Amino acid sequence: MIIDQLKALWQCSFGDPEDAIDAFFSTAYTPARCQVLMQGDQVTAALYWLDTQYQGQKLAYLYAVATHPDFRGRGQCRCLMTHTKKLLKARGYAGILLSPASDGLRQMYGGMGYRDCCYCAKLSVPAAKEPAPLRMIGADEYTRLRRQYLPEDGVVQEGENITYLKSFASFYAGEDFLLAAAQEGTVLHGLELLGNRQAAGGIVKALSCTEGTFRTPGHDTMLAMFLPLKPSARAPGYLGFPFD
User: Fold this and answer.
1) C-alpha 95: how far from its chain's center?
2) What is the residue-wise DSSP string for 82-109?
3) Is 244 a residue whose pLDDT tops 90?
4) Which of 48, 67, 186, 224 could form a disulfide with 118 if both were Cys (CB 3.0 to 4.6 A apart)?
5) Among candidates 100, 96, 99, which has minimal Cα distance to 88?
6) What beta strand segments (E) does the chain contain?
């Protein structure tokens, strides 16, 4: 089955465990947002996208772009990207976002017309002496609160995007912050901290961790690249979580 081949391609390309791959296919995958190249019955390259919004316009966030090792260096990725660009433009998308995993990919996508956008700041903090008051919340409340906390230049991600995020992260709210985070032993990984970044140390303490890393709105680290498909499309400034 093609799904089995897609999962196998994902695993050999990114090294993710089986349960993490299954989480994507059970929450965010649909054939309508997937493009595949094949040679005979074999999948040679594939990509997916998630629907997002920015300033009232629909953007496609390309995800898990992969070429089978046996077919690399043959232009498979460029062919797939070119076809997908035409398809998304025909479907009315205003632009495309993607998050390159390496400088080499950044250069490759730059050669296709993509330009840097969506920056963030990164914090590394030890646990504070006093915990920050917080509560665990569900996906619906996180979605609602995220609209309130999101910067004006931020990308709106909802629906299956949040469902997928919840498969590997927990959601928390405090008096003046919103957090999506995952724990690894005593280390807290704040995939997105919106609101009061000064609460980071207290959040680490509240969740019984010794240290934490957080991504927050800022201008230090590039997270994504953007390709406009309409003259009116403008590059967003903040992506939030690139599902890495």
Assistant:
1) 16
2) HHHHHHHHHTT--EEEE--SSHHHHHHH
3) no
4) 224
5) 96
6) 34-39, 42-54, 57-67, 95-98, 115-126, 134-137, 170-174, 177-184, 187-195, 211-217, 221-228
